[in-house]
Write a structure and sequence with these properties.
It comes from Micromonospora pallida. The protein is mostly helical and about 400 residues long. Helices cover about 70% and strands about 0% of the residues. The radius of gyration is 23 Å and the shape is globular.
């Protein structure tokens, strides 16, 4: 059934019921309907015109509601993400501050107050509380612009950091184009301060990879890393080394995406040397850089290069490091999504299910709100040996 999306909705129900090995009677019982009702739906005699009924059917079949309705209809979670992104787009589209127009009755915040607000937003993001970050960003973006206009010197760092958070969140939500705008604004504001530029470049690397510009990402990340890595890099401070190492990781992730294994090894070995000097348990410039972060990157690059067994080995090594527990929740949960992919590729759906359940436990939004998380969950839930806890989670979220 190569073109299931072209079938009438009733036929799609029948198709997916067959895929789930459900008889009409069992399917009807789970829906609380009669077998005759199911038969009429599948033959197109009875229309499915209630969203709640479609959602119930999708939940039983462990698929997104959009699969039943076709490509152009979004499930509730996707529609919610679209609304969230539009709220951020609206905030980024306001030009009252640069045009010198009043921005409502909001007062100009002091730099100290704004710095605390930005730090709170970063912490909220790193705990993977994405819905809360979405609520914070519109007002925060207005506030940082107002403070920067009032005090360009002192207000520069909060402005750059707010744009960094925005870009990082938008990558999570799957909008690379809008994330690129936020990263570009951050880069423009940071120009002239190489440490700020390097910090922004971390998010720029994520954006470029999300947009499929992997060769550009590798080139830009490498250039930014080596710009920080002065000839006297052996005397570099841990924050500077963390930025340099994180940019090397970003370059390696980009290289892995287009199959340059030699570059991946070179870049990650360089990053590992810096990581040993920084150590674990730090979060300089919101990078979480250290030896454990390099091992996580080795997992991700091995998956991209098709070396799933190596990826599993790196994952299992990394989570035994003491530095694992000190990484931000967002970083750990994102890695667990990678680990799930690796386990699926080596034919171990039970382990894949276990790490996905762990990811959902420590950072529910990473699985529930992030498209990559929902995709990983859907893929794992289709496996015959998927754990019951995983299929229950997939059922609850309407994926499968």
């Amino acid at each position: 059934m190569d073109r299931i999306d072209l079938l009438p909705v009733g036929r799609r129900v029948a198709y997916w019921r067959g895929r789930r090995n459900l008889s009409q009677q069992v399917f009807a019982d789970r829906l609380g309907k009669s077998k005759s009702w199911v038969d009429k739906v599948e033959r197109g005699v009875r229309a499915l015109d209630k969203v709640s009924t479609l959602q119930d059917i999708a939940a039983v079949l462990r698929i997104d509601t959009a699969v039943l309705l076709g490509r152009d209809v979004q499930p509730a979670e996707v529609a919610e993400r679209t609304v969230d992104v539009e709220r951020i787009r609206a905030a980024l589209s306001r030009y009252e501050i640069p045009l010198g127009r009043p921005a409502g009755r909001r007062p100009v915040l002091s730099v100290d107050r704004l710095t605390r607000e930005v730090a709170h937003a970063w912490t909220t993001f790193q705990y993977a509380r994405y819905p809360q970050v979405i609520d914070l960003l519109p007002d925060l973006l207005t506030d940082v612009q107002r403070t920067h206009a009032h005090n360009p010197g002192a207000g520069r760092v909060p402005l750059v950091e707010a744009y960094r958070i925005t870009a990082a969140l938008l990558v999570k939500l799957g909008d690379a184009e809008l994330a690129w705008l936020a990263a570009d604004r951050a880069m423009a504001a940071a120009t002239g301060d190489w440490i700020l530029v390097a910090a922004v470049a971390v998010q720029l690397g994520q954006v470029l990879r999300a947009a499929g510009r992997v060769r550009t990402a590798k080139s830009v990340m490498r250039a930014a890393a080596y710009r920080i890595a002065s000839p006297m890099i052996e005397y570099g401070t841990p924050p500077d080394l963390s930025l340099c190492g994180t940019l090397l990781i970003q370059a390696a992730l980009a290289a892995a995406r287009y199959g340059d294994g030699a570059a991946v090894v070179e870049l990650l070995d360089e990053a590992a040397d810096l990581a040993e000097r920084v150590g674990d348990g730090h979060d300089h410039h919101r990078t979480g850089f250290g030896p454990t972060a390099v091992d996580l990157a080795r997992t991700a690059t091995a998956i991209e290069l098709g070396d799933a067994r190596d990826a599993v080995a790196w994952h299992e090594k990394a989570i035994q490091r003491y530095g694992w527990r000190y990484l931000p929740v967002e970083h750990r949960a994102a890695h667990l999504l990678d680990a799930a992919r690796a386990y699926l590729q080596v034919g171990d759906p039970v382990a894949a299910g276990r790490v996905l359940v762990d990811a959902e436990r420590i950072a529910p939004a990473e699985v529930r709100h992030r498209p990559a998380g929902r995709d990983a969950l859907a893929q794992a839930a289709r496996e015959l040996d998927a754990p019951a806890t995983l299929t229950q989670l997939a059922d609850a979220l309407g994926v499968g």
